[in-house]
Amino acid sequence: MAKAERDQSITIKTAEEIAKMRVACQLAAEVLEMIAPHVKPGVTTGELDQICHDYIVNVQQAIPAPLHYGEPPFPKSICTSVNHVICHGIPGDKKLKEGDALNIDITVIKDGYHGDTSKMFHAGEPTVAGKRLSAITQQCLYLGILEVRPGAPLGNIGKVIQKYAHANRYTVVEEFCGHGVGSRFHEPPQILHYYSKDSDKILMQPGMIFTIEPMINQGKRHLKILPDQWTAVTKDHKLSAQWEHTILVTDDGFEILTLRAEEAGWRSTL
Ligand code: MF3
Ligand code: CO
Ligand code: CO
């Protein structure tokens, strides 16, 4: 795609759209808060899906965006990616066991707009390796967010994420990226979590809304997709972690639309 075409397809949200995105994003964040006490050894990822589905549909009166999304249609309402699953794990009847690390990824549609966010959880007491990978991956997300400001090249985001991951002897998954989000689940631009000079061709502008969602591996970066055509796992079966926020580019920086109450002090953790 030529640069001009690619730039044209990035939507700049109006004040009305931004207001709707704030609502959808806060609902997605609330699902992650709601599900937290349910994540413990013995629960199945299918049960977590059912609880989130019912909450989104009945309490929030919103739509779980993953359900029937894509080709083949995603069969569940949330993604649950356990241990060596990188992303797009399909909830099922396997029980979580003590020390499992998992990402829960929530996307809700409210009033036609998508809010997309994910975080890591641990069933019971985290393992040392799982806790460290999860913490470093969350820092990667926050460092990426701090690069968001009008006029900055998109490439700045991947640059800092990659640098911090590598400094901690981890690798960055390259096959999946962040994305513009709004009335569509996935829209331009792509937000790479590693540095590529191509991504410097697009400058951030106020009113852009996109996700940053680094997937960071304990071992090699390579992945394979399971026969279900969704589940992405590390080739070497080592751990992978992911955190995701939906970000608005503002006139003087950024707004984290999917911020949770527990993250109020996030800047002081850096
Ligand atoms: N929420 C994921 C993302 O961040 C996409 C999930 S697509 C699904 O981009 F179909 F697997 F739900
Ligand atoms: Co996303
Ligand atoms: Co997501």
TrEMBL record:
The source organism is: Candidatus Thiothrix phosphatis
Gene for this chain: map
Q: What is this protein called?
A: Methionine aminopeptidase
HAMAP family recorded: MetAP_1 (MF_01974)
Q: How does it assemble?
A: Monomer.
Is Repeat there in the keyword field? Answer: no
Q: Which Gene3D superfamilies match?
A: Creatinase/methionine aminopeptidase superfamily (3.90.230.10)
Its annotated function is as follows:
Removes the N-terminal methionine from nascent proteins. The N-terminal methionine is often cleaved when the second residue in the primary sequence is small and uncharged (Met-Ala-, Cys, Gly, Pro, Ser, Thr, or Val). Requires deformylation of the N(alpha)-formylated initiator methionine before it can be hydrolyzed.
Which residues, if any, are the signal sequence?
A: none
Ranges for the Peptidase M24 domain? Answer: 20-251
What is the taxonomic lineage of the source species?
Answer: Bacteria, Pseudomonadati, Pseudomonadota, Gammaproteobacteria, Thiotrichales
The residues that the entry says bind substrate are: H88, H186
Gene Ontology MF terms: initiator methionyl aminopeptidase activity
